[in-house]
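Marked as duplicate of an earlier ticket. Keeping the data here for the record.
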Amino acid sequence: MSQHPDLILAAPLWPHGDSSLMHLMRRAGQHSTTCWTQCVDTGLSAVQYAILVVLAEETVCDQQTLGNRAGFDKATGTYVIDRMTKSGLLKVEIDVNNRRRKLVSMTAEGQTMLNRMIEQAKSAERLITADLNEQDVADLKRLLSKLGGLQEPDDNHSAGRR
């Protein structure tokens, strides 16, 4: 028995017992990153791809809404949006009605990049779920949405995506 009984064990104990949830989450994150880098050759991250997807749907979006939709915090968003703007993928303007608010839109180069990435991102998702059946994928989405504090996906909407 450990000298620290309240310690969350971050190392795998399998096959001798349970693995900690934190260890499993870390391993799943590593697997996700590996699948992304194997399938996506643009050098953009999954967060950057999410930004392009949101802007394809919204056209122009304030930075806070973009962060909520694409799943990043303010500090990360400022850094990522700045990098994407410098690479010519995004355009940022100050809102004339509220000078503290930044409006973000996708450039033609950003649209070209998104078009290039769509099939690659779908391949990454297929790779990450390759060993899961449809019910496993549905359960995983539901649980990750719950853990992430997100609204649970509508059954009809999430069933059509894969």
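See parent ticket for discussion. Residues 156-162 have pLDDT under 50 and may be disordered.
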